[in-house]
Every structure is written in C-alpha cells, then in structure tokens.
Design goal:
Distance between the termini: 42 Å
Radius of gyration: 15 Å
Low-confidence stretches: 120-137
Number of strands: 0
Length: 137
C-alpha cells in the first residue's frame, strides 16, 4: 500500500490521494507492528517524501526526524536507510533555510564515508560540499 501511496503522491503528483494512503499505511503498520518496526519507519519515510514534495516541509521534518530517531536505534547510524533519512532531513533543512541544521547531517555522513572509505548518500545541498564542509556562499 505504501508503494501505491508513493506512486500517487510522488510520481503522479496526486498529493491528497498519496498522503491519504500513506497516513493509513503508517497507522496500520504502527498498530500491527509497532512504531520502531522497519516497515513502519519505511511507511513514515514515504509519507514524509510526499509531504516534502507537496511543500509541507515542517510536517516532513517531523516525520523524517521520527524516522531517523527510530532507524538510528533499530538499524544503526551507518545503515543505508538511516543515511538516506539523514540526507532527506538535510534537504528539508535546506529548503527551510536552516543552514545550521544542515551542517550536522552533512558532517555525519562525510565522517561515515571516511570510515567506510566509500561514498554513501552524502547530501549535496546548497552550501554543503561533498566533504560535509559548509561554504561561506
């Protein structure tokens, strides 16, 4: 059901339909599996994605943050899903003009890349270089 919500809300730009499906999916997954189950967090992430695309950045921020908090505990801070959530949260902060908040996710991702000796989901948002450094302009 979350795939259909993403299809409608993200790809087809039918935000109301996609959001409605994803809200239902998050609710059902939470009731059946619990808030910290990976499928519940995946549905949360999908809902946040649709909200972000709609321009509801504060709502997306809250969902991405809840998803990130859960994924850090359940999956670990180096898991690809955790890193993707961190990247998405950095994009929200960038859209909101909250540059100071963009710095932390970018630096965390850059440090993990150094530790893993590879490039994994480093956000490239305005003012954040691949190495996680904030430019002055």
């Amino acid at each position: 059901m979350s795939n259909l919500g993403v299809l409608k809300g993200y790809y087809l730009r039918k935000f109301d339909e996609g959001e409605q499906l994803l809200v239902s999916c998050v609710s059902k997954a939470t009731a059946a599996l619990g808030a910290e189950h990976e499928l519940t967090m995946a549905a949360q992430y999908c809902l946040a994605l649709v909200l972000f695309e709609r321009g509801a950045y504060r709502e997306a921020e809250a969902l991405y943050q809840a998803c990130l908090d859960g994924r850090e505990v359940v999956l670990g801070d180096g898991h690809p899903d955790t890193l993707a959530t961190m990247h998405s949260l950095a994009l929200v902060f960038e859209r909101l003009g909250e540059r100071a908040k963009v710095e932390r996710p970018a630096r965390c991702l850059a440090l993990r890349n150094q530790r893993l000796k590879c490039v994994v989901a480093v956000p490239f948002v305005h003012g954040v270089a691949t190495g996680g450094l904030i430019s002055s302009g």
